Amino acid sequence: MRELAKRFGSTTALEGMTWAARQGEVTAVLGPNGAGKTTTIECAEGLQRPDSGEVRVLGADPWGAGPDHRAAVGVMLQDGGLPNGSTPVRLLRHLAAFHQSPANIDALVKRLGIDAFAGTTVRRLSGGQKQRVALAAALLGRPEVAFLDEPTAGLDPHARLDAWDLLRETCDTGCAVIVTTHSFEEAERLADHIVIVHRGRVAARGSLAELTGKSSLEDVYFSLTRESAR
Amino acid sequence: MTTAASIHTAAPARDRVLAQTRFETSTLLRNGEQLLVAIVLPAMALVGLALSHSPSLGQLNQSARIDVAVPGVLALAVISTAFTGQAISTAFDRRYGVLRLLGVSPLGRSGLLIAKALAVLTIELLQFIVIGALGLALGWHPHWLGLIPAALLALVGTWAFVALALLLAGTLRAEGVLALANLIWVLLLGLGGVIVPPSQLPAGLAHLAALLPSGALGTGLREAFIGGRLAVIPLLVLVAWGAVATYLASRSFRWSD
Questions:
Q1: How confident is the prediction for chain A on average, in pLDDT?
Q2: Chain B: residue nearest A122 by CA?
Q3: ipTM, 2 decimals?
Q4: What is the pLDDT of residue B5?
Q5: Model pLDDT, residue A2
Q6: Domains in chain A: ranges and CATH
C-alpha cells in the first residue's frame, strides 16, 4: 500500500501509510490503540475505501474485488464476525462451501482444539474459543494472503503456541500472513517483517534485526510511539 | 501464480448463494423465538379468530368469518418473517460483524442479500403450508384461482417488508431494532389492517391502514382468496412502499456497527 489516507469526520485515521508484505512471510503490524492498524487492515480487506492512496492485494484493488479474489484472501476480524446462533463446526463447514477446494475442516478443527467445544453455540463460547474459530474461518480457504486482526488476543499460552505453529506452516505454503498485534513476544517470535505504526503512519519497518540492532523491540517501540518522544 | 490461482477459486455463485440460503433458513428454524413469531403466534391467532366472534372482521362478498381470517393471518406471517425476523437477525449480524465477514468472503454482499431473500421466501412457504392446512381444517374455503394473485402480492409484500427491515437494521443499534421491530409488529397487528380489515377499523384509522403496507397486504390477500381477483390498489401501495424503502435502505445501510 502506498500513501494511504483515511479520515472519519475530523479524525485522521491514516495519513501516508506505506508498507508492503511479501508472500511466504509473516508481517506483524504493531502500534498503540488508535494508531490505525485496524483501519489499515480493513482497507486491505476491501471493507473500507481509503480517501486517497493505493492498496493492491495480489495485484488487485480490494475495494469491490470479485469472488475469486475474496476466495484467495483469508480474513479474521477483530470482533470475530461469527454468527451467534451457530455452532463452530457447522459454521466452518458452511464457510468452506464458498470455496472450490477448501482445507480439510476436520484436521483444522482438531489442530486448533475446536473439537472440544464443537457443539457449543458461538454465543456461549469464551473469548479465546471464539478467536480459534475465527482463525480457522480465516484459513479454511487455504488463502494466498491472510489478514488476521489480533489473532492470538485472549488465547491461553498453549493455544497461542498452537496458533503460531499453524501460522508459520500457513506461511510455508507461500501465503502472506499479516497480523496486527500488541504483543512484542508475538512479533519477535513470529514475524519476518515488522511494521510499527503510530498516528496513522509508519514509524519504522524492517526485520527484527534491522529494527532493533542492539536494543530490544520493546525499547524501539516505546521510543517511537511514546507521546513524549514525539 | 497461475497454478495457485486455479486452486484458490471460489465455488460457483449459485452454490454459494444456496449454501447461505440453507444456512440462514436452518438458523432461523433452530431459533425458538423466531419459530414462535413465525409459526406458533400466527397459528394461535388463527385458532383464536376461528373459535371466537371478536374482533369483528366484517364480511366480504358474504364470506364466512374463517375466509376473512386466514388471508389476514397469512399476511401476519409474511410481516413476522420478512419484517420483524429479518430486521432483528440482520441488526445482530451487523452488530457482531457477521455482515462484514460474509461481505469479504467469496459469498460477498450481493450474494448475502440474495440468500437472505431466498431464506425468507422458504420460511414463508412453510408458514403458508402450516397456516393454510390449519385454515382448511377449520373450514376455510379459499377461491383457488386467487392463489396466483396471492402469490404475487406475497412476493411484492415480502420485498417491501424486507426493504423496511433492512432500513431499520442498517441504521439503528441492534437493541433499538429489537424493540422497534417488535413494537411495530404489535401495532400493525392491532391497527394496521392486517387481520382486522381496514374497513372494520375506526373511520380515521381505516384510510391510514389502507395505505400502510400491512393493510395493503391483508386486503390484497383477502381479495385474492375470497374473490379470486387481483386487487390493484393494494398492489400499487406495496410497490410504492417497496420502492421507497429500497431506495432509502440502499442509501443509508451501514454494514458495520
A1: 91
A2: B96
A3: 0.92
A4: 45
A5: 83
A6: 2-83+143-229 (3.40.50.300)
